[in-house]
Write a structure and sequence with these properties.
6 helices, elongated
Length: about 140
């Protein structure tokens, strides 16, 4: 396979837009949590760090898949944002069910550095991302 300059440039453009998309999606996620992610991570919260890393990985997987199945960068970005919204809805439903059925406040637990809650929330993000990737 012979690579062309066009392919090198296109790879850089796709990569750059994927990084910008990931940054925007993670910034939105930080704004939508009921706690200050970076302050808690700075203070050593393992639960918040685990959830954040899993969310970062989940979003990267979704962006990667959306780039694979779309012909244009714009379509990949739109699909990534749509998947972010679907994951957000999944998280809200999951958090609501945990509170209703088991009296577990996931956001509070994560903010209080309850590691199992961080693992559960992060795992949910990864599982949701894998399911979304399969549906693209």
């Amino acid at each position: 396979m012979t690579l062309t300059w066009h392919q090198f440039v296109a790879m850089g453009v796709w990569f750059g837009l994927a990084v910008v998309t990931l940054f925007i999606l993670m910034a939105l996620d930080v704004l939508l949590t009921r706690y200050n992610d970076f302050e808690l991570i700075r203070n050593g919260s393992t639960a918040v760090a685990i959830r954040f890393i899993c969310k970062l990985g989940a979003q990267a997987l979704i962006i990667s898949r959306s780039m694979t199945v779309n012909q244009t960068v714009w379509d990949a970005v739109v699909l990534s944002f749509y998947a972010f919204i679907l994951l957000l809805i999944l998280q809200w439903i999951f958090d609501g069910l945990m509170k209703l059925l088991f009296h577990i406040d996931m956001a509070r637990n994560i903010a209080e550095n309850h590691t199992p809650s961080g693992l559960l929330a992060g795992g949910l993000q990864l599982v949701g991302a894998v399911i979304l990737m399969g549906s693209m």
